[in-house]
Request: fold
Amino acid sequence: MLGSLDPTSDRAVFRQIADRLREAIDQGSFPEGAKLPSESELVEHFGVSRMTVRNALSMLQSEGLVSSEHGRGVFVRPRPPVRRLASDRFARRHREQGKSAFIVEADAAGSRPEVDNLEVKEERPTADVSARLGAPRRVPARRRRYLLDGRPVEFAVSYLPLDLARDTPTAQPNPGPGPGGIYARLEELGHHLDHIEEEIRAGMPSPQEVKTLQLASGVPVIHLIRTAFDTKAAPWRLRQRHGRRHLRAELPAARNVTAGRARDADEPSGGGTHFSELEHTNPHTRIDERASGSRLIRGPVRR
Reply:
């Protein structure tokens, strides 16, 4: 299963051991949650010192592939179960069924969705949020953490123009926006979702993200900023998300694509109401699509 070391290689022995273990994990010999061979077993198998084995395991931990549990051993880390199909998750039919995008994804994965650490307050927007939402002086900010089967997968903050959100369920912590989520409440007010713009980048987490998402050493996060536009092309929601996710892009073939921007041939290019979000997501090693640096994706919402 683990093979042997190459004595002629100039690659350090501990790196070779890490390579063998990584290959075994990728090939499914050690599935998610499985315990790796003990240090003593690896020492005997490879004929090396215990310190060399520990260096190899430490390398895998820094990559986010495994986690160490004191007194129990080293285990393969579970990987995020949710695959995010951006063009379908905001379909109006889901909102009409009383489902938010997160619940749609959880149902598709057969997982139990939860939301905690909810905080809603009115605040002065940062320069970036203000620019995206048409320069409002104050915005309601909804902060919350999403979990699947008890595991944190995402932390999100949503901002809305105050004139849209004031005295509506979207600005209240309890009982919350209700069935269908924030988009459903805004559509009830006449602001129908037309399209979204998303900017995605990956990087190492901040100390606060590590704590909130319960991340192991070496695990990166995806930062996603989404701006939603109504049918008048006005920005009406900004959401910033941080978390553990798989990303998948599905774009229609009849589309003009230029400089990292995707647009339908008949899509208007004017201005209207936005709504923005920031997601922090953990990409781990099984992302359907990766991007280096930042990327802007623009697309319609399925009906």
Q: What stands out?
A: The CA atoms of residues 73 and 167 lie 52 Å apart.
